[in-house]
């Protein structure tokens, strides 16, 4: 959609859940996960600003204004109390949403994500390189470079899934994605993680090389009462390699929060 309105997909029925996707992806990344969840949950799946079918939504593409756009989209749909899952980059947006709009967020599920994604020397180098490579190569060539069978550790994606992933990443504007990547490396929720008071689940992949285990520990250590789950054989692409296992973890968590909040 043009202007400042996010494209949002709504599917399923039941308690409301918001799914926030990763950098250069779109809500379509959850298509297989959604198949396992839509019988029990009403899924609100926006394409974040500058991404996918929200490509025409103007920046800036930093985390804070993205969270503001998600809040507007939720309110526009009459959603006033949702369980929110953020995956990778979407996890940063989810944290910001819970900080700035706590009335909209009943719980958080933070999957394969971080409080600060440039916490080590290697990560700082990667954070510096990513926006520059996107600008230099363009999204099409950058997608070919990044979307490979073993991307992010864990079981390799099959060739059909790799081709699909490349198409999704390449479908974005180069300048917007370079800006989003640059802004993301500046995100740092560590100073205010302790202010997040919603029930929180942190899910990580035991073989994730893109967002290693120290990030899950940082999140869980900073958010009071946060629970952790590890899908041992999964990497950063667990949403595609382990969708059923991830869906089961999430559904169990959301049902638990719903039960506890109603007692």
Automatic annotation (TrEMBL):
One of its GO terms (cellular component) is membrane. Gene3D superfamilies: alpha/beta hydrolase. Residues 16-243 form the AB hydrolase-1 domain. InterPro entries: AB_hydrolase_1, AB_hydrolase_fold, AB_hydrolase_sf. Keywords: Hydrolase. This is Alpha/beta hydrolase. The keyword Ion transport does not apply. GO terms for molecular function: hydrolase activity. It holds the Pfam family Abhydrolase_1.
């Amino acid at each position: 959609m043009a202007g400042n309105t996010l494209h949002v997909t709504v599917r399923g029925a039941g308690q409301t859940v918001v799914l926030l996707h990763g950098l250069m992806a779109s809500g379509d990344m959850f298509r297989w996960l959604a198949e396992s969840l839509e019988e029990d949950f009403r899924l609100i799946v926006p394409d974040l600003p500058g991404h996918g079918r929200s490509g025409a939504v103007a920046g800036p593409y930093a985390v804070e204004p993205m969270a503001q756009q998600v809040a507007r989209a939720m309110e526009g749909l009459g959603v006033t109390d949702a369980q929110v899952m953020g995956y990778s980059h979407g996890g940063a947006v989810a944290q910001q949403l819970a900080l700035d709009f706590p009335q909209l967020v009943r719980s958080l599920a933070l999957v394969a994500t971080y409080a600060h994604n440039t916490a080590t020397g290697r990560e700082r180098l990667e954070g510096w390189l990513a926006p520059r490579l996107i600008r230099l190569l363009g999204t099409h060539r950058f997608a070919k470079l990044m979307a490979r069978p073993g991307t992010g550790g864990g079981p390799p994606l099959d060739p059909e899934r790799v081709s699909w992933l490349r198409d999704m990443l390449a479908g974005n504007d180069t300048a917007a994605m370079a800006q989003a990547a640059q802004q993301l490396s500046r995100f740092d929720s560590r100073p205010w993680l302790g202010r997040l008071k919603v029930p929180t689940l942190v899910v990580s992949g035991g073989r994730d090389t893109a967002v290693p285990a120290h990030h899950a520990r940082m999140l869980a250590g900073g958010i009071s009462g946060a629970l952790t789950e590890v899908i041992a054989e999964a990497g950063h692409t667990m949403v595609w390699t382990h969708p059923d296992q991830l869906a089961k973890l999430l559904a169990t968590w959301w049902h638990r929060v719903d039960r506890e909040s109603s007692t």
